[in-house]
Amino acid sequence: MSLVKTIRLGFLHVALAITFVAINGVLNRLMIHDLAIPASIVAALVVLPYVLSPMQVWLGAYSDRHPLFGYRRTPYIAVGLILSMGGMALTPYAALLIAEQFWLGLLVGLGVFLIWGIGYNLAVVGYLSLAGDLFPERERSRVIAIMWFMMIISLIITAILMGRALEPYSDAQLLRVFALAGLTGLGLMLLGLVGLEPRNHAPSSQARHSQQDALRAVFANSQARLFFVYLILLLTALLGPDLLLEPFGAQAFGMNVEQTTQLTATWGGATLAALLLYGLLLNRWMTKKPGALLGGILATIGLCTIGLSGILEIQALFLPGIITFGLGTGIATSTNLALMLDMTTPEQVGLFIGAWGFADSLARGAGSLLGGLGLDILNSVTGNTTISYAGVFLIEALMLAVSLVMLRSINIQAFREEQPTLTQVVALAGDT
To answer: What local confidence, expressed as pLDDT, does residue 351 receive?
Structure first.
């Protein structure tokens, strides 16, 4: 039964992941390279969903205290995924409109990307909080590994299918493929969500204070603050390349739409192999922090190799760089998400997952902005687009290295010993 619950929970993660393949693996390349929309504009649209990421902290704490129809997470997840799929299906209309009527298209783009962003925030904090509700701490690493295993397989399959479906490319086919992807995500939502969460599961009484008090409870803890900053740096470096890998392949090495879309499958295959390697073998000899360090080192090497492939104009380095980056991403993802779930308290799971989800979304936004604005700025300075792409990858590698230095200071036991209860925080606020 526990495995069935994990797989069904994984379907929710897969549904949301489909939107990332569509937007960050297909649409961004078409907008930047084929439609000649400035990378900074594309980055600004992609970052819009993450502008709303602070709502994850509020939503996590709110769902702890305010069940709907007897469910703490299910209604929030359902609405979130419906908005995500609908927003994603509309994004290619906005992209094509921007190329024809810039200001009107940009206005439409703002709307549809915000719809996707609201849905993303509702869904992600909901199903990660549900994972914390359904599974005890000792099972969470396995749950995370299975969920991400399912996600990576879905990324590979989705990238391959979308790449083949778009060759030969046409605008009409692009719209059809995105609509089908949205319907597929809604089907996965129904398979995963209906009946998954027990009804009338009462939240802890400690979760019934104001949101202001809840935020104090998170950020009054020095270890929580350190982990928050660490996540932002780490995830900015790991997630930032999403915006640029496909257009970089087109610019530097002349790859077509199908070939650049397969880069996601290559990265996904390497990430999947790393998840299996760590989940089946390495975790027996390596705890979470050393595993996170190993993953970060491999990802750093991969980013440096990708950057050097453009600087040296050696395509033979490009795919090995992506594979190494994928291996590092897989190990880092598994270990850091397990750390994220450990950095919670039982009575405030939704609250802390919301805080870490906020860090994740902030990092995605920062990575997209770094990619788009960094590319345009470096291009204006160097006059060489390929070198500019490489420069952004090397900056992300440096950020990743800084995050690994911070990792050494993170201590889960110290976090739990320092963590005040909400009652203590309220009392402290009253004294102040």
So the answer is: 64
